[in-house]
Specification:
By secondary structure, the chain is α+β, with helices and mostly antiparallel strands. The protein has two domains: 4-133, MutM-like, N-terminal (N-terminal domain of MutM-like DNA repair proteins); 147-271, Helicase, Ruva Protein, domain 3, CATH 1.10.8. The protein contains six helices and ten strands. The strands form three sheets. Strands 1-6-7-5 form a four-stranded antiparallel beta sheet. It has a four-stranded antiparallel beta sheet with strand order 2-3-4-8, with helices on one face. Strands 9-10 form a two-stranded antiparallel sheet. α1 (4-18) crosses α6 (199-218) and α3 crosses α6. The longest helix is centred in the last third of the chain and has 20 residues, at 199-218. The chain is elongated, with a radius of gyration of 20 Å. The model has no long low-confidence stretch (mean pLDDT 94). It binds a DNA duplex through loops.
DNA sequence: ACTATATCCTGTATGC
DNA sequence: TGCATACAGGATATAG
């Protein structure tokens, strides 16, 4: 599941592969990934031809590829989206959805997405910051990210800490994997009410999230299978460092207690039952 | 205004 | 073996 570190790995890979290249042809092989472009796939393709990519940008899990003319190609990888850079003659991998060819005849940019929760759209005037994602909060890697302000906003919310971590308008980039890992590092239960957190504790949780994502980025991100790979099709290896996510029944790396998987928001939350005690009095269970 | 939930989507794993 | 169901979960529309 691509979260901030995985998306950043992709952004860096694209920077090396598309900077300064001019689009010669676009083929939309499945309409769903361009569903946000209301005039349709043919219009999407036609409008992109002739444009030149500049330096790829990212906010949270959103990626945008600005064009030299001030517009941008906005992208979200969703659950299973990938960008690949492959030679034009290379066989298409399954679930290839959109193909970009360049006038230099070099590698194609290919958008692959099995589940199609992700997508691409043309963002007019979006080169600096696509207006479609102006509501997304800054992420912890952003130089202008304000930790103290994020802590204040978090403590004002009437919800629990894991919901708050997953709220992209509060702090962008955190998904289920890094939320669970951050909470484990900060020895905090997912149902802990944000309003009951001290300023110091909230800061500790957000700092833990930032650190775990920075460490994961250093290892190329987290991969469980072929669903998340970089632009060369290779996997990251942070999955070997996960303490609790996906580790049901395995010993907590800190205390040895077996990790539990529990239902949370129609999904799962993984925690150590000893390091992350249930906060009976200060729990927020919707 | 704010929070919670249903929905989209497909491949893989599991149960009967 | 075959069929049904559960699960993975980010963002958004909608309900409360």
């Amino acid at each position: 599941m691509p979260e901030l570190p995985e998306v950043e790995v992709v952004r860096r890979g694209l920077a090396d592969g598309i900077l300064g290249r001019r689009i010669a042809d676009v083929q939309v092989l499945h309409p769903r990934p361009v569903r946000r472009h209301l005039p349709g796939p043919a219009d999407f393709a036609a409008r992109l031809v002739g444009r030149t990519f500049t330096e790829p940008r990212r906010r949270g899990k959103y990626l945008w590829l600005p064009f030299a003319d001030g517009d941008a190609l906005l992208a979200h990888l969703g659950m299973s989206g990938q960008f690949r850079l492959d030679r034009p003659e290379a066989t298409l991998v399954p679930n290839t959805r959109v193909l970009f060819s360049f006038d230099d005849g070099g590698t194609q940019l290919r958008f692959v997405d099995q589940r199609m929760f992700g997508g691409l759209s043309l963002s007019p005037e979006g080169a600096e910051l696509p207006p479609e994602i102006a509501h997304i909060g800054r992420d912890p890697f952003d130089p202008e990210f304000d930790l103290a302000e994020a802590v204040s906003r978090m403590r004002r919310k009437r919800t629990n800490i894991k919901r708050a971590l997953l709220d992209q308008q509060l702090v962008a980039g955190i998904g289920n994997i890094y939320a669970d890992e951050a909470l484990w590092r900060a020895r905090t239960h997912y149902a802990r009410a944000t309003a009951s957190l001290s300023r110091a504790k909230a800061t500790e949780v957000l700092t833990a999230a930032t650190e775990v994502m920075r460490t994961a980025l250093g290892q190329g991100g987290t991969s469980f299978d072929a669903l998340y790979v970089n632009v060369n099709g290779a996997s990251g290896y942070f999955d070997r460092s996960l303490a609790v996510y996906g580790q049901e029944g395995r010993p907590c790396p800190r205390c040895g207690a077996p990790v539990r998987r529990e239902p949370f928001m129609n999904r799962s939350a993984f925690r150590c039952p000893r390091c992350q005690r249930t906060p009976y009095g200060s729990a927020y269970l919707p």
